[in-house]
Amino acid sequence: MVFRSSAAICGAVVALAVSVTVARSETGGAHSSAIVNAASGDAIVGAASMYNPFKPGKEEGGPSTASGERYDPSLWTAAIKTSLRQKFGGVQFGARPKYALVEAAGKKVIVKINDVGPLRPGRIIDLNERTMRHFDPSLELGVIPDVTVRPLSGDDWIPGPVG
């Protein structure tokens, strides 16, 4: 009986620790004041769309990203337009991930740039599903106009919304 109670308490403590860690990484609020200082280079303004190679009818790309990571719709990631690759310090297989601050409609999110693509004319970034839902919860828009993308220097960012 004592063993079961101890195991239950231990399990509850572990669950609490995991939920606190996840909540801290989701908020990203700790970065909010430092983001402007970390933005490197000029802001890029254009349209954002969403990509998910696992959706039926998806005509380009595949499950592997340019960084070698597998596409994951549950993370805060994006693909930058191929011609902007160098503005982000290069996005290539095996290289450290690059990060960017994406702003639209009064919302901000830090994303890990782990892929590149030709993208359609006028589009500068393809957001993965989770990131697009941050800006368009119902996914009805398809394209978000007037998105500002700023490369972030350093590699220790926690992707997610910025408060």
Topology:
Blueprint: H1 2-27, H2 35-38, E1 44-50, E2 77-81, E3 98-104, E4 107-117, E5 123-127, H3 129-135, E6 143-152, E7 160-161
Parallel strand pairs: 1-5, 2-4
Antiparallel strand pairs: 1-6, 2-5, 3-4, 3-6, 4-7
Please explain how this structure is put together:
About 17% of the residues have low confidence. The protein starts with a helix and ends with a strand. Strands 1-5-2-4-3-6 form a 6-stranded mixed barrel. The protein has one domain: Beta Barrel (Barwin-like endoglucanases), CATH 2.40.40.10. The protein has 163 residues and is α+β, with helices and mostly antiparallel strands.
- SSE-based structural type: alpha+beta
How are the strands of the largest sheet arranged? Answer: 1-5-2-4-3-6
Q: Could you tell me the mean pLDDT? A: 75
**Total strands:** 7
Instruction: Determine the N-to-C terminus distance.
Output: 46 Å
Domain RlpA-like protein double-psi beta-barrel: 45-145
InterPro entries: RlpA-like_DPBB (IPR009009), RlpA-like_sf (IPR036908)
Pfam family, one: DPBB_1
Organism: Bradyrhizobium diazoefficiens (strain JCM 10833 / BCRC 13528 / IAM 13628 / NBRC 14792 / USDA 110)
